């Protein structure tokens, strides 16, 4: 298994970096899924085609990381059906994630597509890199969070402006779970049991997905219905 890189929790000094670690805790942990955001297209099982980034290059590197906080599933996805993954940095726990080394422009374009918008320009990252958080709007993925730095570059993600206990939790769909779990597994830092137990324990999935069901879905090679 790969060693897990540690995140330096201090904020990086460069407020206008050319590259950032876009840190995915949802289905974009999977490189095939992320490719739809970068190159454009429709990933298997998704209900939407993505326009892609202005720069379609794949990440220079992708590394496994763990964030402080909690992942939960809430609000219904028009793309996958079922709950979406969100990150609450103020909650107790740990979040398994995958950090992709992309340009700042690609990060802005991915964020735009998460809000069903066309990529239109770069984001001003100065506030999030100064304060650790920046609320750009009230949309579900318009709150930027900087978890620190790796190799001097910011570890950035986006989430909702609300907290984990402020909204009803909703179970995620089988295709969504499969991309998320397979992406974490392919990162190489966690084995199948660890990934399956983690995903099944997250609020929204807990009580609807068991570790055994997540493991079966990982091994099925399909995007079928949720196993019992």
Structural class: alpha+beta
- Terminus-to-terminus distance: 30 Å
Q: For the report, how would you describe the main beta sheet?
A: 6 strands, mixed
- Determine the number of helices (DSSP H or I, runs of at least 4 residues): 6
Share of residues in helices: 25-40%
Furnish the topology, listing elements before pairings:
Elements: E1 19-24, H1 31-39, E2 62-68, E3 70-76, E4 83-88, E5 94-103, H2 104-114, H3 126-131, E6 133-135, E7 143-150, E8 153-159, H4 174-186, H5 192-201, H6 211-220
Helix pairs in contact: 4-5, 5-6
Give an overview of the whole structure.
The structure is a single chain. The chain has six helices and eight strands. With 228 residues, the chain is α+β, with helices and mostly antiparallel strands. A six-stranded mixed sheet has the order 2-5-1-8-7-6. A two-stranded antiparallel sheet has the order 3-4. β7 and β8 form a beta hairpin. α4 packs across α5 and α5 crosses α6. The radius of gyration is 16 Å and the shape is globular.
Labels describing this entry:
alpha+beta, 6-stranded mixed β-sheet, disordered C terminus, Histone deacetylase
Q: How would you concisely characterize the structure shown here?
A:
With 228 residues, this protein is an alpha+beta fold. The protein contains six helices and eight strands.
